[in-house]
């Protein structure tokens, strides 16, 4: 296990602070641990797992999910790097409480080097953060460059996990251009917020470029409906559009998998990961939309 540091809360709004890292509820913490485990089993032979976290639209909680996932991976003792590749509206550095620059854009532009840009998280000594850096005029070109591919290859030799916070797929092409260099994408879906049309468009784009889809993380799920607290009852969750049934387990978590036609005989790479315990994370997104600049 990693050594925990004693740190002050980062300078984020109260709702955000109350659902992140040390302040996560037990249900949310267990849900992220189960998400971590599913990612481990979905890529069992990878020496470094590069996971992109995105969404179909803004405000679904993907940056909060990426940060909490990196925190949870660090808890297990793995060396993890959180990269803020949302260079249009970066938020990772504020969530963790680190400086904004230099960062990814500075590295890709040749204006900085890894030692100066990669910061150690104040929470765990094995958790590192690469902030977005200065906002560039051409994020898509930087992310799709040969320099970005080389950077990920170099970093994969140092870390066990690389979690990449990506912009929403339906808004800009940034997430799609970097996806070939990841081991797969996790799509964050906010219940009663994400439209089926938006999710359809998002999944179409992912399939179109042939990116590996690892699964969904559903946020903003009410604790009453999650099944948490009923340890002996495995409640069944309903469908979200046509992409998957999920099967409820204790601690407000469920997973399953389907193919594009809705059959439960789909590939495991299409695993439907539903971290309902992370609903508290999206609750802050819902309550603090005005203060959260996340895409």
Report on the structure:
- With 295 residues, the chain is of the alpha/beta class.
- The chain has one domain: Rossmann fold, CATH 3.40.50.300.
- The protein contains 12 helices and 11 strands.
- The strands form 2 sheets. It has a 7-stranded mixed beta sheet, with helices on both faces. The chain has a 4-stranded antiparallel beta sheet with strand order 8-9-10-11, covered by helices on one side.
- Helix 2 crosses helix 3 (62-75).
- The two termini are 33 Å apart.
- 52% of the residues are buried.
Shape: globular
Number of helical stretches of at least 4 residues? 12
CATH H-level homologous superfamily name: P-loop containing nucleotide triphosphate hydrolases
Query: Would you tell me the overall average pLDDT?
Result: 75
């Amino acid at each position: 296990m990693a050594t925990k540091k004693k740190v002050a809360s980062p300078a984020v709004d109260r709702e955000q602070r109350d659902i992140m890292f040390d302040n996560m509820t037990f249900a949310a913490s267990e849900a992220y641990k189960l998400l971590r485990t599913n990612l481990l089993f979905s890529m069992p032979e990878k020496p470094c797992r590069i996971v992109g976290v995105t969404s179909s639209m803004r405000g679904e909680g993907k940056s909060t999910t990426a940060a909490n996932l990196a925190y949870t991976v660090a808890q297990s003792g793995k060396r993890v790097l959180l990269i803020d590749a949302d260079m249009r509206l970066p938020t990772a550095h504020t969530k963790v409480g680190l400086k904004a620059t230099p960062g990814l854009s500075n590295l890709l532009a040749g204006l900085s080097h890894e030692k100066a840009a990669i910061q150690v998280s104040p929470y765990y000594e094995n958790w590192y953060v690469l902030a977005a850096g200065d906002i560039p005029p051409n994020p898509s070109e930087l992310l799709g460059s040969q320099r970005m591919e080389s950077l990920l290859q170099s970093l994969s030799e140092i870390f066990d996990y690389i979690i990449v916070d990506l912009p929403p797929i339906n808004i800009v092409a940034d997430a799609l251009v970097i996806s070939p260099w990841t081991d797969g994408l996790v799509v964050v879906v906010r219940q009663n917020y994400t439209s089926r049309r938006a999710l359809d468009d998002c999944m179409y784009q992912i399939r179109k470029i042939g990116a590996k889809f690892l699964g969904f993380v559903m946020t903003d799920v009410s604790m009453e409906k999650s099944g948490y607290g009923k340890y002996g009852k495995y409640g069944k969750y309903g469908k979200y559009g046509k992409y998957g049934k999920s099967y409820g387990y204790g601690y407000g978590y469920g997973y399953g998998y389907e193919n594009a036609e809705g059959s439960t005989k789909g590939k495991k790479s299409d695993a439907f990961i539903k971290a309902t315990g992370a609903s508290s994370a999206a609750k802050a997104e819902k309550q603090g939309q005005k203060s959260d600049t996340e895409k």
